[in-house]
Amino acid sequence: MKQPTDKLQTNIGRMLVAVVGFMLAAYYAITAISARDVLWFWNGFDDRPVRMIVYQDGQRTELLFGDPGFAGLSEAVRASLAEGVARPSGIGLSSGSLEDAYGLYVTLEVFFDRPVKLHASFNTDHPTQMLFPITGRHSDLNVVFLGVEGTYLSGAPVLKTTEPIRKAMQAAGFSVN
User: Fold this and answer.
1) Average pLDDT in the chain
2) What contacts 41, CB < 8 A, 6 or more positions away?
3) Most buried of 5, 98, 105, 108, CB within 10 angstroms?
4) d(CA 177, CA 21)
5) Which has the closest alpha carbon to 74: 54, 53, 50?
6) Nearest-angstrom CA–CA distance, 91 and 64
């Protein structure tokens, strides 16, 4: 005949498994709802820009598919975004900062042909354009400003790395210092 304590221990073990399972499911669900992304934990990014603009020394260089440097820079953007997001920055892009990014600093602006999703544990919306500060304000943070319909959103994600972009820009003849 079984001891009553054996049944109690089995029930406590099952209860702990159930509680831990419920807590994990709740954490996943709450994060998925707030991020508006069921794959918020996924680092992958497979979309490539269809158009890019490099701003340097007040000059604007537009790159389209087939232009020299486009393929390498496009792959570098995809690779940086595929590494994933480190955290939200809480930084926005004022009109003055945007003007400085275009006129004073080295900046990469990329455009996609459809809305894309950058997976993160917070809402990154579905941007159609992104702005990467390479020099100047916010460039040391690895942030990427996400844009929808020509407007950049606040709360720019901090990427784990932008080094592939910097290397590709340098290989294409742009200054990254």
Assistant:
1) 90
2) 119, 121
3) 108
4) 49
5) 50
6) 29
Q: Please report, for the chain, the start and end positions of each structural domain, with discontinuous segments joined by +.
A: 1-35, 51-171
- pLDDT at residue 4 is higher than 80: no
Q: What would the two tokens of residue 150 be?
A: 């020509």
Q: Where are the alpha helices (DSSP H) in the chain?
A: 4-35, 70-82, 95-103, 163-171
CB atoms inside a 10 Å sphere around CB 73: 25
Contact 137, 17 (CB under 8 A): no
Buried b / exposed e over 98-127, threshold 16 CB at 10 Å, is eebbeeebbbbbbebeeebbbbbeeebbeb
What's the whole-model pTM score? 0.85
- 9 versus 50: which is more confidently predicted? 50
Q: Which two tokens stand for residue 59?
A: 């000059």
Asked whether 120 and 37 are in contact (CB, 8 A), the reply is yes
Tell me how crowded residue 19 is: count the other CB atoms within 10 A of its CB: 10
Strands 51-56 and 157-159: unpaired
Residues 54 and 166: their CA atoms lie apart, in Å, by: 12
- Strand, helix or coil at 31? helix
Tokens of 101: 């990014």
